[in-house]
Every structure is written in C-alpha cells, then in structure tokens.
Amino acid sequence: xxxxxxxxxxxxxxxxxxxxxxxxxxxxxxxxxxxxxxxxxxxxxxxxxxxxxxxxxxxxxxxxxxxxxxxxxxxxxxxxxxxxxxxxxxxxxxxxxxxxxxxxxxxxxxxxx
Length: 113
What we know:
By secondary structure, this protein is of the alpha+beta class. About 50% of the residues lie in helices and about 20% in strands. It is built from three helices and four strands, in the order ββββααα. The chain has helices spanning about 40-60, 75-90, 95-110, and strands spanning about 1-5, 5-15, 20-25, 30-35. It has a four-stranded antiparallel β-sheet with strand order 1-2-3-4, covered by helices on one side. The longest helix is centred in the middle third of the chain and has 22 residues, at about 40-60. The mean pLDDT is about 90.
C-alpha cells in the first residue's frame, strides 16, 4: 500500500503485463495508475492524485476524502436481529456495537501482523 497527500493506493503486480498496477482506495471516483518500477509507480500515483485535486479545483468540485465513516453492510436478518438485541441489552446503539466489534477485530489483526 502507498500513501500520498492523505490518499492510499492498493498495489498489485501484473505478471502478464510486467507492470505494477495501483488504484486509490476509499473513493467513489476511480483513480488508477501503473508503472514498471516502484519509482515510476510512486511518481504516477502522485501525479494521479495531483491531477485529481487540480481537476476538482477547475470544476469547483469538493475532492472526495477517503472513507467518510459510513458504509452499508448486508447481513442475514437473523444476525441483524441478534446484534440489535445484544446492543439493546447493553444499552448501546447498534452503531456503537458494530464500531466496537470492528475496532476489536482490527486491533487483533494489528497485533498479529
């Protein structure tokens, strides 16, 4: 993963094309780039983000920020019901329950890495 100016990119390698392929994550807009070396990939990533920000300025559009803090999750209705009951019994909102569960799982994965 690469980071530049508050944006993050997921990187993959295409053996077929012999290129590194990158895509900025967490946006509705698509920002993709590629390079044949890490240096070229980083340069193209920076250029992609800079071009995106410039284009937003030109069109008077507010640039998207990564991860607005809202997302939809589709789960089985039985699990949804169980989660609501669990949260109610603990006098917390469903949002707080889900946030805490995600925080717990993410902190575990950080410790495992």
